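Kindly draft a sequence, keeping tokens residue-aligned:
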Amino acid sequence: MKTVYVLFETDLHKSKFSRIFLGVFSSFNLANQYAKDNNCYTNNTEVVILEVELDKFQEM
């Protein structure tokens, strides 16, 4: 299975409602570096990086 990392910018409480999609990356470090380079870590915002497996089918 191939793993990708989805980057979101969100509020300080990391609520799902406030998430803004920023991109999909091949590694956690690359997603984190992009967030740092683009000032996504501020006093009013946080970053959420989700690990997702591609081509996976299962009941939830």
Observations:
- The CA atoms of residues 22 and 39 lie 12 Å apart.
- The chain has one domain: 3-53.
- The chain is about 15% helix and 35% strand.
- The longest strand covers residues 3-10.
